[in-house]
From TrEMBL, chain A:
It is found in: Cell membrane. Residues 88-294 form the ABC transmembrane type-1 domain. The keyword Transmembrane applies. It comes from Aminobacter anthyllidis. This is ABC transporter permease. Keywords: Cell membrane, Membrane, Transmembrane, Transmembrane helix, Transport. Pfam families: BPD_transp_1 (PF00528). GO terms for biological process: transmembrane transport. Coiled coil: none annotated. The chain crosses the membrane at residues 20-47, 94-114, 123-147, 174-194, 229-253, 273-295.
UniProtKB/TrEMBL annotation, chain B:
The gene is potA. One of its GO terms (molecular function) is ATP hydrolysis activity. Part of the ABC transporter complex PotABCD involved in spermidine/putrescine import. Responsible for energy coupling to the transport system. This is Spermidine/putrescine import ATP-binding protein PotA. It comes from Aminobacter anthyllidis. The keyword Transport applies. GO terms for cellular component: ATP-binding cassette (ABC) transporter complex.
Length: 306, 364
């Protein structure tokens, strides 16, 4: 015969087991899709590159050393190599510019949608999300068609007599920017719209009533109130932008390397998986720290109401 | 002040406001003209949907009139955007900026006008004192009560010293006791600042107790403008008499007209004298309005008679509902006195005496 206490203990352990079972799918996914692969990348970054790619299971810090330093092939001395830094800097710059550009285009777009009538808003949102249904590669090639030397833009400008030589837009940083802004714009518009929809437009009227011009109302009333949306949108655009691979390869023509292309190179032709792994972790760490600083600085007391 | 016409702060001339297009067109304001004097407490009174808020929004500049002009001290402001009008609004919802403190809210208008910091700080301190909110200056607007938010909204609108202050049902969100307090507070603020107040409300009691003059509105039109006493005692139209206070309407035939006075015969055959609403030219039949407190129920003969239907005791007074012999109902309100006075029983036959200056003939 089991005593009451024993029965209770049995039930308790059953409860615990049930809880573990219920959370198992989530934990499995988190491990298989997120922390597991990350752990493998971390381990690979401390191994020795194999002769035909892959890794040799021998501990080495060479991968991490090569992130910023270069070993002279003759005398084995280490020297600072700026190549990776230059590429990282370009990626960062382009990602920031793409974020700012999507904000500039996305803000009025979201404001426009949020100020439509309830019924038409859904149609506008639908139109914004339609490009999402198309494959990224196809969208990127569409941009290529528009801006190449024989594309619509150049043909139109030549036919209008504005220019007589096509403007070289394709395979420049400008092309990468255009591609990223086009691809990531919905990621900015949707969170901005979500916070603008909640905006009390009577506050806008109150602002006008208190002698604020349109620009002052935007800067002093609308912007602080939709800041949570601005932060969310910026993060959603910045993270994929700094790791963008397809857009820079297609539109930048591989000439202007971005960080993702550099990493790909190490796993491909470079046959230096540990360096690729180390570079991946480096960029991830930098982005994480940057975002933490950004969120802490912008979502201070001012955005608490959101 | 109420009856001495001074300078006009606001003049509304032939203003029409139409919303929508084609079939769905609705005239929210139908050719409205009204003058609001300097330093007066002017109330726009009417049921919801009568156009009072639309008129206020046109003066504030949130909407623009379809026709007509709005003059502020003689110059047309109708085409100006709200931020170019020396007019401020207290919103029904208060519309305080949630991302700013109480003091920042109050100083916002002055800041936008480009006033120097020292002047803003001094004025904000003055305003905080005026509305008795000094202690809460650093609070966020979400951390203060409804009545306090109301005071901040007032201070914010008064801080830039507008020529005219517009108040859009500012007390409707407050509970009864707080509303009474704020009514007195508003009168005090208007007195101390000397600013012209235009107050919108649907509460007739609020309008009567606070205003220097009232404009009664219905279906996009202004029916009557006058002092609370004028509006109550000399209503021009049936709607005005009905909307403000309790009223008895009686059908009558006009026997003689002499200026503003008339002799009329009621259906009961009794002949009484009545005043005629300004500008109204009655002929033959007319509607007579008598306030319940201007008539007296008596045991025995009166001008009209009937049977007591119901007696309702209110403490200060008693309402006697009488079914008249011609089938209409008539209410009499009598002041109560302790331990004395005639009391009436249900079913009892009574007479109603109508005082000499009790009846008014008006437009039906």
């Amino acid at each position: 015969m089991a005593t009451a206490a024993e029965v209770e203990k049995l039930n308790e352990s059953r409860d615990v087991r049930k809880r573990w079972l219920l959370s198992a799918p989530a934990l499995t996914i988190i491990f298989l899709a997120a922390s597991g692969p990350l752990l493998i990348v971390l381990i690979y970054s401390f191994l020795t590159p194999g002769p035909y790619g892959d890794v040799v299971w021998k501990f080495s810090t060479e991968g991490w050393v090569s992130v910023l330093l270069e070993r002279d092939i003759f005398d084995d001395t280490l020297a600072f190599a700026s190549a990776h830094l230059t590429i990282f800097w370009r990626s960062l710059k382009l990602a920031l510019m793409a974020t700012v550009a999507t904000l500039i285009f996305g803000f009025p777009t979201a404001y426009f949608i949020a100020t439509r009538s309830e019924r038409t808003r859904d149609i506008w949102l639908f139109l914004i999300t339609i490009p999402f249904w198309t494959n990224l590669l196809i969208r990127t090639f569409a941009v290529l068609q528009v801006i190449r030397n024989e594309g619509i833009v150049n043909t139109a400008l030549i036919n209008l007599g504005i220019i007589d030589q096509p403007i070289q837009m394709l395979y420049t940083d400008f092309a990468i920017m255009v591609g990223m802004v086009y691809v990531y714009l919905p990621l900015m518009v949707l969170p901005l719209y979500a916070s603008m929809e909640k905006l009390d437009f009577r506050l806008v009227e109150a602002g006008y009533d208190l002698y604020a011009t349109r620009w002052q109302v935007l800067r002093r009333i609308i912007f602080p109130m939709v800041k949570p949306g601005v932060i969310a949108g910026s993060i959603l655009v910045f993270i994929p932008a700094i790791g963008a691979y397809v857009t820079p390869s297609v539109l930048g023509g591989g000439k202007n390397m971005m960080f993702a292309n550099l990493i790909e190179l190490q796993f491909g032709q470079g046959r230096n998986w540990p360096l690729g792994a180390a570079l991946s972790i480096t960029v991830m760490a930098i982005v994480m720290v940057a975002l933490l600083v950004y969120v802490r600085n912008t979502s201070g007391s001012d955005a608490r109401h959101g | 002040m109420p009856d001495t016409p001074g300078k006009n702060a606001i003049e509304v001339r032939g203003v029409r406001k139409v919303f929508g297009t084609g079939e769905a067109q609705v005239a929210a304001l139908d050719t409205v003209s009204v003058s609001i004097r300097e330093n007066e407490f002017f109330t726009l009174l009417g049921p919801s949907g009568c156009g009072k808020t639309t008129l206020l929004r046109l003066i504030a500049g949130f909407d623009f009139p379809s026709e007509g002009e709005i003059l502020l001290y003689g110059s047309d402001i109708a085409p100006l955007p709200p931020f170019k009008r020396p007019v401020n609004t207290v919103f029904q919802s208060y519309a305080l900026f949630p991302h700013m403190t109480v003091a920042q809210n109050i100083g916002f208008g002055l800041e936008m006008l480009g006033k120097p910091r020292a002047e803003i700080d001094a004025r904000v301190a003055e305003m905080l004192k005026l509305v008795r909110m000094e202690k809460l200056a650093k609070r966020r607007t979400s951390q203060i009560s409804g009545g306090q938010q109301q005071r901040v909204a007032l201070a914010r609108a008064l801080a830039p010293q507008p020529k005219v202050l517009l108040l859009d049902e500012p007390l409707s969100a407050l509970d009864y006791k707080l509303r009474k307090e704020m009514q007195i507070e508003l009168k005090r603020l208007q007195h101390e600042t000397g600013i012209t107040f235009i107050f919108v409300t649907h509460d007739q009691e609020e309008a009567l107790t606070m205003s220097d003059r009232i404009a009664v509105m219905s279906s996009g039109k202004i029916l009557q403008v006058g002092s609370p006493r004028d509006i109550y005692d000399r209503p021009a139209e049936r709607f005005v008499a009905d909307f403000i206070g309790e009223t008895n309407f009686l059908d009558a035939r006009i026997d003689s007209l002499d200026g503003g006075k008339a002799k009329v015969t009621l259906k009961s055959g009794a002949s009484i004298s009545a005043t005629v609403a300004d500008g109204f030219k009655p002929d033959g039949d007319a509607t007579v309005v008598i306030r319940p407190e201007h008539a007296k129920a008596v045991k025995g003969q009166g001008d009209i008679s009937g049977v007591v239907e119901n007696v309702v005791y209110f403490g200060t007074d008693t309402h006697v509902h009488i079914k008249l012999d011609d089938g209409e109902t008539f209410t009499v309100r009598q002041q109560n006195a302790r331990g004395a006075g005639a009391t009436f029983e249900r079913g009892e036959r009574v007479g109603v005496v109508i005082g000499d200056d009790a009846a008014q003939i008006l437009k039906d």
